[in-house]
Each structure stands twice: as structure tokens, then as C-alpha cells.
Write a structure and sequence with these properties.
The protein is of the alpha/beta class. It has one domain: TIM Barrel. It contains nine helices and ten strands. The chain has an eight-stranded parallel β-sheet with strand order 8-7-6-5-4-3-10-9. A two-stranded antiparallel ribbon has the order 1-2. It is globular and about 40 Å long. The mean pLDDT is 93.
């Protein structure tokens, strides 16, 4: 399976790692660490050296309780990093945004993928993504970041998540976006309790019904901290374990802050799965 990113493709024949670079002062995992563009670029290049297949750059935190950041501010944060990384490397770049203006400007600056926690539901986002030619990740979120953790509930998991993503895939197809440009993400931690996250991970294989690659982001998240009693900066082992479990259940892309350890773990997982007859990936 190959993901069409417009200017290039990403081979998903084996699990791939997406490195996270937050160019924000208020991310939950590394607030302000890469707010300076030079620091963010250095982090991105290091992640590529560690084996990341794609770098995800975002200028707006979507942690629980966060509020929207204007397009102009997002662009001020991310464009120097995207442009700098594009000069230094031909590796795929994703932009983490739900804003149509940011999407278009980021792709024009060299981004290859749009990673949208709103699944292209914000004004103009579907149209902007369609004409961009970029790859697209559609994520499930119950509510919005500011309120998503206010008593989230579901009738059935993973069924409710699959139904939402199926609806968004249909909207993309109607807008002229081909399936080979699409990835789906169940949205761990986005409008979900710890129990919801565990049920989703256990049943991740049910997303195969969509016929699209699955991306997961569990790195350093609160559920891992509550299960282990570890602080955000102490969740490496938990995040790697969650990544391996996700790949065993069919995930094709793992989004993480901890690239080197995740790359190594997924190499072992892929080797074992190959001997066992393969994972849930097509």
C-alpha cells in the first residue's frame, strides 16, 4: 500500500513513524521547547536521522482545554520550519492544522500532508484540502479541544468512531479526493476517557472496514500516565508498548515524540508479524 502525497508517495508496506514537532508554547508534552524555528528544525532533522518517515509540524495545540490559534499566528510559527526542512530534506512533511488558510499556505511552502483533528469539518477545509493534492489524515474527535473531555460518551466503540470516519471519507470522495490520499486516525485522547482509549486500541482492527491506512497517536498521552503513574517525560516505555500493540492490530503509521525507540520497536514488531503471516495492514 502506498499513500499519495501529491509530490511524492509514502510506502506503507511496513509500519512507518511520524515524528512530532510542536511549534507552540503550550503543547501538553513539550511546551515551548521548539517555539524557536531553529530549534524546531533541528528537532525535525534529528527525528529523520532517527528513522522517522514523515515529520508532523503544528503551530496550534489541541490538548484538552486548548483554544483556537489564529491562522496568522500558526503560519508565523510553522512556515519557517516547513521551508527550512524542505531546503534540508526531501522527506515528507505534514502540517497539523484544521484551518483552511494554514493548510493552503503550508502546502505551498512544501508540506505534503494535512493532518486535521477536525477531519476537514472547519470552514473551507474540505475544499482547500481537495485542491492541494496533498495526503490527508482524517481524525475522530468528540466535540472540540476546549470541551472534548467534558464527560464524553459513546453508544458503541469502535463502531461510533468507524461510522464518523466513514462519513468523512464519503465527504472527501464527493469533493474529488481519491482514497489513495487518505489516512484515518481514531483520535486517542480526543473526547475519550481512559476506558474508551483502551477499548479503541483493543478493537483497532475494526477500522480496517474503511479500507484505508490507519494512523495512531498515543505518545505520552494522559491515559498512559494514569495507567503507569508516570509524568509526561517518563512515558517512553508505555508509548512504545502502545505503538507495538497498535501495529499488531493493523496501524500503518505511528505518530510519536520519541522516534528512535519507536522505530526500533516497530522494526522488531514488523519482523515478527511478517513471520506470523502479516498484520492487519493490506
Amino acid at each position: 500500500m502506498r499513500l499519495n502525497l501529491g509530490r511524492q508517495t509514502l510506502d506503507l508496506g511496513s509500519p512507518r513513524v511520524m515524528g512530532i514537532v510542536n511549534v507552540t508554547p503550550d503543547s501538553f508534552s513539550d511546551p515551548g521547547r521548539h517555539l524557536a524555528s531553529d530549534s524546531a528544525l533541528e528537532a525535525a532533522l534529528r527525528m529523520l536521522d532517527e528513522g522517522a518517515a514523515i515529520i508532523d509540524i503544528g503551530g496550534e495545540s489541541t490538548r484538552p482545554g486548548s483554544t483556537p490559534v489564529p491562522a496568522a499566528v500558526q503560519l508565523e510559527r510553522i512556515l519557517p520550519v516547513i521551508e527550512g526542512l524542505r531546503r534540508e530534506s526531501g522527506a515528507p512533511i505534514a502540517v497539523d492544522t484544521g484551518n483552511a488558510v494554514v493548510m493552503s499556505a503550508a502546502v505551498a511552502a512544501g508540506a505534503d500532508m494535512i493532518n486535521d483533528v477536525y477531519a476537514l469539518q472547519q470552514p473551507g477545509a474540505l475544499e482547500a484540502a481537495a485542491v492541494s493534492g496533498a495526503g490527508i489524515c482524517l481524525m475522530h474527535m468528540r466535540g472540540r479541544p476546549a470541551t472534548m473531555q467534558d464527560a464524553p460518551s459513546y453508544d458503541r466503540l469502535p463502531g461510533d468512531v468507524v461510522a464518523f470516519l466513514s462519513d468523512r471519507v464519503r465527504a472527501c470522495r464527493a469533493a474529488g479526493i481519491a482514497d489513495d490520499r487518505l489516512v484515518v486516525d481514531p483520535g486517542f485522547g480526543f473526547g475519550k476517557t481512559d476506558e474508551h482509549n483502551l477499548v479503541l486500541l483493543a478493537g483497532l482492527g475494526e477500522l480496517r472496514a474503511l479500507g484505508l491506512p490507519v494512523l495512531v497517536g498515543l505518545s505520552r498521552k494522559g491515559t498512559l500516565g494514569r495507567l503507569t503513574g508516570r509524568r509526561v517525560d517518563e512515558r517512553l516505555a508505555a508509548g512504545v508498548a502502545a505503538a507495538v500493540l497498535a501495529v499488531e492490530r493493523g496501524a500503518s503509521i505511528v505518530r510519536t515524540h520519541d522516534v528512535a525507540a519507536t522505530v526500533d520497536a516497530l522494526k522488531i514488531a514488523a519482523a515478527v508479524l511478517a513471520r506470523a503471516g502479516g498484520s492487519g495492514r493490506d
